[in-house]
Amino acid sequence: MAELLTKDLSVKAGATTLVNGANLRLVPGELVALLGPNGAGKTSLLKAALGLEKRSAGFARLDGSDSAKLSPIERARRVAYLPQQRPLAWPNTVRDVVALGRYAYGAAPGHLSPEDAAAVDQAIKRCDLTELTDRQTDTLSGGELARVHCARAFAADAPLLVADEPVAALDPRHQFRIMDIVREYVDGGCGALVVLHDISLAARYATRIVWMKDSRIVADGAPEDTLTPERLADIYGVRATVSGRAVEIRGTF
């Protein structure tokens, strides 16, 4: 079974600790939201877990293998990663950008095998991009481009998705649309770990919430168990009312 696992994972930059003793697990069937204030260590945790950033202690494994020792192709077949910054070197068509997700299988835009083409078509359909297939990416809105990047990740047919702020800068409608797509991906038998800043989105979609503060994971569990006014006060310094999965922020301390 596909699994991303960290044990006592730590990351340092000089004398500064970015991640301190993080234990994290992701398997198919879960949509895990990673929450915490800016500077809590969320991005460093993701990168170190995937073997993309050097760890100072602990271990990180993908399907039982040390993630830092995987080749880019091996890693891409096991997990699709959407970083915070997703620049495109030059404008291209939506289909060609999505086809980049088949990199792990030796494919290149314009040179797709029938299997690669089918995976690209399925990803385009899943992300509701069929009518935009031939559009240049520099003509798309922010919400449309976010869906293109999701489709590029899904085209890899990886069993796990790790996405760092996939809904950042999107309006509420497009935030829901992207999270619906991720939810469908998980419901199809995959697993997703998503960094979010919108607590209500996390409460609505996540099966688990992992909370970070000051470089540490301070809680990990179902929204019903970990989403409390006390938690929000501790993590974010805000006054909030929580009813089930509904959150209302009333102000700061």
UniProtKB/TrEMBL annotation:
Keywords: ATP-binding, Nucleotide-binding, Translocase, Transport. This is Iron compound ABC transporter ATP-binding protein. It comes from Hyphomonas jannaschiana VP2. One of its GO terms (molecular function) is ATP binding. It comes from the Bacteria. Pfam families: ABC_tran. Residues 4-239 form the ABC transporter domain. SUPFAM superfamilies: P-loop containing nucleoside triphosphate hydrolases. SMART domains: AAA. Gene3D superfamilies: P-loop containing nucleotide triphosphate hydrolases. Part of the ABC transporter complex HmuTUV involved in hemin import. Responsible for energy coupling to the transport system.
